[in-house]
Specification:
There is one protein chain. This protein has 2 domains: 162 residues, Nucleotidyltransferase, domain 5; 50 residues, Arc Repressor Mutant, subunit A (Orthogonal Bundle), CATH 1.10.10. It has 9 helices and 5 strands. By secondary structure, it is an alpha/beta fold. Strands 3-2-1-4-5 form a 5-stranded mixed beta sheet. The protein starts with a strand and ends with a helix. 53% of the residues lie in helices and 16% in strands.
Length: 217
Amino acid sequence: MLIAGVDDAGRGPVIGPLVIAGILIDDNQSSVLQALGVKDSKVLTPNKRIHLFPQILGLAQKYAIVELSPSEVDKIVFEGKKLHRLNWLEAKAMAEVIGKLIPEVAYVDASDVVEERFGQQISELLPSQIKIVSEHQADANYPVVSAASIIAKVHRDKFVSNLRDVYGDFGSGYPCDPKTKQFLSNWIRDERPLPDFVRKSWKTFRLLDERNRQKRL
């Protein structure tokens, strides 16, 4: 039986894309992934993820990656409630990935607090009937989802690393990072057009922008 694992990377940062990745394997290869040391990307070091990346791709029958740009995230967030809209956008991207892989069963890491609802959203966006197993912590419980989480994380990390090469060290890109806040604050202060890799809908950016406007009054 062909199974797919799908996961995201970069849901929370104010800088960079939201990346959705999926891989397709025969279900009996799950034990091979475990033997390689595949785990949820969050518990692995960057070097370990990079080491596993080509091994996972070599094992996969197919893989697919979808990048959601900051502007796409901003558009959906500005249109409605952030969490609900972002969940829908992610479900749509996961459906796109699953549609490219065409598994018999797809295991996904649920973004919605209601696992079944997230799985149903994905199912409704698919052109054909594919069983969706939508669970919290699927990236820790299913090796195929762990592998997808590694693919997504390495892909996004490379994207962000390329940004740092051009724009300097802006930290992790997460809202709580002082380096990230300072980078955005300096950019706003200098009144430069904001780069397209920043999510303008995130509260961190909006607060910094508002403070800068008040200083100029």
